[in-house]
Amino acid sequence: xxxxxxxxxxxxxxxxxxxxxxxxxxxxxxxxxxxxxxxxxxxxxxxxxxxxxxxxxxxxxxxxxxxxxxxxxxxxxxxxxxxxxxxxxxxxxxxxxxxxxxxxxxxxxxxxxxxxxxxxxxxxxxxxxxxxxxxxxxxxxxxxxxxxxxxxxxxxxxxxxxxxxxxxxxxxxxxxxxxxxxxxxxxxxxxxxxxxxxxxxxxxxxxxxxxxxxxxxxxxxxxxxxxxxxxxxxxxxxxxxxxxxxxxxxxxxxxxxxxxxxxxxxxxxxxxxxxxxxxxxxxxxxxxxxxxxxxxxxxxxxxxxxxxxxxxxxxxxxxxxxxxxxxxxxxxxxxxxxxxxxxxxxxxxxxxxxxxxxxxxxxxxxxxxxxxxxxxxxxxxxxxxxxxxxxxxxxxxxxxxxxxxxxxxxxxxxxxxxxxxxxxxxxxxxxxxxxxxxxx
Length: 440
Ligand code: NDP
Ligand code: HSE
Description:
This protein is an alpha/beta fold. It has helices spanning 13-24, 26-33, 64-68, 85-95, 105-122, 138-145, 160-172, 176-185, 194-197, 200-214, 233-241, 303-323, 366-376, 406-416; strands at 4-9, 37-43, 60-61, 75-78, 99-102, 126-127, 151-157, 224-225, 244-254, 259-269, 281-288, 292-299, 351-361, 381-386, 394-401, 404-405, 427-431.
């Protein structure tokens, strides 16, 4: 039986992990596939960087295009990342009739519709398990295990860097900057960490799994996105006092003709499973009409966990090559002709619980002014807490609300910010609680 030849583009954090597994676990993989997977070519810019792996003579090159054009290569694994050269290389690989594996969620979320069409037209597979949730088989679960279900909702933590930062601030008292630097040093963060901390990377992942779950075209632009860069240690501490942890969540609900899709810091109760998912661990609850609720959990970032998912895709494709099949599992779970444009609900239309922190002058009448405006906007206050006196004379006033409409909340905050007693912009953090009935 013939060998399957692999060309790896990009030998950074994940690419190195992929090479390590292919080399160190070669026999294990051969015994599972039935033929050797041979790492024939590896392309990266810096030929001299120490990567902890020794490649055979002639394997390493700085010319990625040469790898994509090599007629002996069966599978291209793209581990460069970003929206630039990686897109051209993937399209060229597809044009050359090669099977492709990528972990590039920014590219799939932004340009996946066109890439999947190109792959389907050419009759090749384009696999992307590692693009969502690192090692966790979320894509396999949605595309294969849950095909008999209407997916009702998905709620989860899908960015290892943000979860690491929030955990380090909450549990170890680290600063945001310290925690981010550590996440970068450990290889969890994107090349541009703004993608992580401002919520974009999480939204890329949500766009991908919504497409798989609901049979919709990938739609990144309508997802509501808020990152964690403005979350202060003070809010993390107050959240703890009320029995919550702050997590950067994806929340998506199938509303039939529309879907809800948002990424934002969220307070969740201590006893919720997601509340206890810390560090680089990711987790997602998926709710289906037949299966009920399931929880998937594992390392969402890092060299070997992510490479594990890349190898899973590579082996799937190698098995397809050996059996002379491709496209057995539709790239986006649904047959291409059944993928629809499904609108995303504007965030204004959601209803949830809220945490507000106002920095207000410590004067009589402040509370009645604020609560008056909230009341006029149909926002019912669950509890009010005045948390000590600050040195500049303003005090933090914290309010938790019952379920309220986002549009009303935004209108009320616009009025509250104009009150002469307000010393700073209010802080708003959404809360998902038991009576929201969405968390398991
Ligand atoms: P890295 O930046 O560590 O690795 C990318 C590598 O590609 C670098 O060595 C880079 O070299 C090299 N490169 C850049 N341009 C070229 C080129 N034209 N030809 C050949 N090589 C090139 O990124 P990661 O390994 O962290 O991420 C790779 C992909 O995996 C991204 O899409 C990322 O989003 C995704 N991913 C990452 C995870 C993680 O935990 N890190 C987890 C899940 C997915 P140089 O450094 O010199 O620019
Ligand atoms: N930067 C990403 C994260 C890598 O921290 O989750 C995994 O997708």
